[in-house]
Each structure stands twice: as structure tokens, then as C-alpha cells.
């Protein structure tokens, strides 16, 4: 099979699954400077590697970060998110004592909620039309 950009292969599947993830800080406090965001990206890239997930893009501001990930079908997005947020929070707390003030109450850096949106592929109308066209005549 010819290699197609963005398409990955596993043992028993070929896939192109992308998600846009957004994590906000607790109470949307402006926490991050550029050096914090640089370290958050490094930590999150490491976590993604552990999950066999590709971190395609990363960016952020003082109160939130955006990630574009390419993940295999064996990875539950909720588990990936929990690890990304948990590991990054723990590492930042250890490495940046100046952030301790933002860890008050339950010692959390991130809000408990997050955004996850599917990305890429054809519009649903095109997929429906394709699936419909696959019916064999009766």
C-alpha cells in the first residue's frame, strides 16, 4: 500500500485519527509564560510517545493550551487526556516552584474539563453518500 500523508498503520489496521484537544488552567488563571509553555510541550510530547500518539501541533497562551494529536484506534482519548494533564501538572509543580500559587485547592493546575474535537476526513455528508453507494443491488 502506498504511503499516504497522515495515514498510519498498526498490526491489524490502517488509520488516520486526529483530535484537537484544549486544556484550560483551573479558573482560567493566567499561569504560563513562554518558558512554561515550552516545558509543557516537551512533557506532553513525551506522554504522547508513551501512548504511540503523534503530537502534530502544540500551542498555548497564559491560560490554556491547544494540541493536535494523531492517535491509534487502541487509545481512548479520555485516558490520553488524563495522562497528559496529570503528568504535565506533576512535572510543572516539581520543576517550577513559582507556579505553586496556582496549585491551591486540590493541588490542580488544569481545569477538570477539556475540549476534544475530531479533525480531518471528509464531511459527514460525503461519508454518508459513500456508504450509501456501497449497497449492492438487491
Automatic annotation (TrEMBL):
<protein>
    <submittedName>
        <fullName>Putative transposase</fullName>
    </submittedName>
</protein>
<dbReference type="InterPro" id="IPR036515">
    <property type="entry name" value="Transposase_17_sf"/>
</dbReference>
<dbReference type="Pfam" id="PF01797">
    <property type="entry name" value="Y1_Tnp"/>
</dbReference>
<feature type="domain" description="Transposase IS200-like">
    <location>
        <begin position="14"/>
        <end position="134"/>
    </location>
</feature>
<dbReference type="InterPro" id="IPR002686">
    <property type="entry name" value="Transposase_17"/>
</dbReference>
<dbReference type="GO" id="GO:0003677">
    <property type="term" value="F:DNA binding"/>
</dbReference>
<dbReference type="GO" id="GO:0004803">
    <property type="term" value="F:transposase activity"/>
</dbReference>
<dbReference type="GO" id="GO:0006313">
    <property type="term" value="P:DNA transposition"/>
</dbReference>
Amino acid at each position: 500500500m502506498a504511503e499516504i500523508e497522515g495515514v498510519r498503520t498498526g498490526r491489524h489496521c490502517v488509520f488516520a485519527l486526529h483530535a484537537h484537544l484544549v486544556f484550560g488552567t483551573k479558573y482560567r488563571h493566567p499561569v504560563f509564560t513562554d518558558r512554561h509553555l515550552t516545558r509543557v510541550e516537551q512533557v506532553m510530547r513525551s506522554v504522547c510517545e508513551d501512548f504511540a500518539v503523534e503530537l502534530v501541533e502544540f500551542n498555548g497562551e497564559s491560560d490554556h493550551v491547544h494540541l493536535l494529536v494523531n492517535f491509534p484506534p487502541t487509545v481512548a482519548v479520555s485516558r490520553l487526556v488524563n495522562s497528559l494533564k496529570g503528568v504535565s501538572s506533576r512535572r510543572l509543580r516539581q520543576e517550577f516552584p513559582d507556579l505553586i500559587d496556582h496549585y491551591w485547592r486540590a493541588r490542580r493546575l488544569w481545569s477538570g474539563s477539556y475540549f476534544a474535537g475530531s479533525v480531518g476526513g471528509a464531511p459527514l455528508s460525503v461519508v454518508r453518500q459513500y456508504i450509501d453507494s456501497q449497497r449492492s443491488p438487491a
